[in-house]
Amino acid sequence: MAHDHSGHDHAHHHGPPADGNFSQAFKWGIVMNLVFVAGEVAGGLWANSAALLSDAGHNLSDVLSLALAWAASLLATRRATERYTYGYKGATIQAALLNAALLYLALGFILWETIDHLRHPVPVNGSLVMLLAGLGILVNGFTAWLFRRGQKGDVNVRGAYLHMLTDMLVSVGVVVGGALVYFTGWLWLDPAISFIILAVVGISSWGLLRETVQLSLQAAPESIDVAEVRQFLLSRPGVTQVHDLHIWPLSTSDTALTAHLVRPGGENGNLFLRDLQHDLRHEFNISHSTVQLEDALPLMGDHGCCDEQVA
């Protein structure tokens, strides 16, 4: 039996877009890393350095990651249409998931190359390795700094920030490895350091991959405790029961909520809904909320199952 929505109060709130415009940060990050990748590839081939080539490969994947994230962020600003009623915000989730997948694909290729260098070691120009990796510390560190402001509220931006920060730390490791090869002559150190680089990048990126998969499946963002939201709704004045509570991501920075609240009497409904929207936005960063108020609990089966009620 379908539930009749007539006569009930509805509230809709569309939150503002994610704070900050990172177009310039993406642009600078892409240009600087492309130039640096070209230098690393040339230097790695000349110096016969697997560590330098692996770092260049990862930086190239970061360039693609930045480009995809930038394109998705631009799409997310486009207005909603009759067909795309939420706009194109979901593109940021798809871009983040694709970036995570491409990262691990690049790691697999780099691993293959590193194993080949380990089986067939060749002399390494340690001084050149240290010079280029030192430049990498500056390039990646500055790029990470460009994204520091928005990395807490957007998975797209956080992905860029973490990749650049990780690359900076990896470049520090390459400098140390180049110095060790230069002073000891132990050629096996170069591919060994490359293995360490792969492990660091793979482990540090696992959380990002897991989160993007969850977002693509419309799971509630990790930053939101659904049980806490439910208890918050139950604590509102006059609410006796909450059912059909759904929380899902519209994008990597915007979250939506729908819920039915049983509130007998329903006095001051407009004021109640206005305050509820405000608190959901500020307490849980839920920017789009749709709430339906009901005088009584619907018949079992109309909505599936009733979630929670006040004891």
Q: What are the salient characteristics of this protein?
A:
10% strand; alpha+beta; 59% helix; Alpha-Beta Plaits; Alpha-lytic protease prodomain-like; disordered N terminus
Helical content class: 55-70%
Cα radius of gyration in angstroms: 25 Å
Strand order of the largest sheet: 1-4-3-2-5
How many independent structural domains? 2
Shape: elongated
Strand runs, count: 5
Sheet/helix structural class:
alpha+beta
Question: Remind me, CATH topology of the largest domain?
Answer: Alpha-lytic protease prodomain-like
N-to-C CA distance: 28 Å
Largest sheet: 5 strands, mixed
> Which regions contain 5 or more consecutive residues with pLDDT less than 50?
1-20, 301-305
Oligomer: single chain
Q: Total number of helical segments?
A: 8
CATH architecture of the largest domain: Up-down Bundle
Q: Indicate the proportion of strand residues.
A: 5-15%
CATH C-level class of the largest domain is Mainly Alpha
Order of helices and strands: EHHHHHHHEEHEE
Can you give the mean pLDDT?
Answer: 79
Brief rundown of the structure:
It is found in: Membrane. The protein has 311 residues and is of the alpha+beta class.
What order do the helices and strands come in, and which of them pair?
Layout: E1 9-14, H1 23-47, H2 50-76, H3 91-119, H4 126-146, H5 155-184, H6 189-216, H7 226-234, E2 241-249, E3 255-262, H8 269-284, E4 288-294, E5 308-309
Helix pairs in contact: 1-2, 1-4, 2-3, 2-5, 2-6, 3-6, 4-5, 5-6
